[in-house]
Specification:
By secondary structure, the protein is mainly beta. Helix content is 0%, strand content 54%. It is built from no helices and eleven strands. It has a five-stranded mixed sheet, with no helix packed on it. A four-stranded antiparallel sheet has the order 4-5-7-10, with no helix packed on it.
Length: 131
């Protein structure tokens, strides 16, 4: 099987505040490559594939197909009380999309969202997070 790169993009919708946080060894969260903006809020988005590497964290490109763990850290406490929906889709051919993960609306009081998706093949995937 030819190895390709899986691209994973996070689309976030919301608005209004932000709080300073430190991540990745003291780098300000505003400069963290895994941080995504949801309106004025900041969300840390990371992807892991522990079957291939226990330590690697990915933000936009995932090296292999397979089981993939998505983790969102809701930096602002306001987001923790809002319902959140996650959908991961594979762009098979425009405009067709195949849903590979769907989490219905739910609040995450701890501020940490964990989900697992099986990315069956190399290709373009999009994570859509809606507040």
């Amino acid at each position: 099987m030819k190895h390709g790169v899986l691209s994973l993009f996070c689309v976030l919708w919301s608005a209004v505040s932000l709080s300073p946080v430190w991540a990745h060894g003291g780098v300000g969260i505003e400069k963290d490559p895994c941080v995504r903006r949801a309106g004025l809020y900041l969300v840390h988005f990371a992807v892991y594939q522990p079957q291939f590497s226990l330590a690697e964290e990915y933000c936009t490109s995932v090296p292999k197909a397979g089981n993939t763990i998505l983790v969102l850290d809701l930096v602002d406490t306001e987001l923790r009380g809002r319902p959140l929906t996650i959908q991961v889709v594979e762009a098979i051919s425009a405009p067709d999309l195949k849903t590979v993960l769907y989490l219905p609306p739910k609040t995450y009081p701890t501020g940490v969202v964990n989900a697992e998706a099986k990315l069956d093949r190399p290709g373009q995937y999009t994570a859509i997070v809606t507040f």
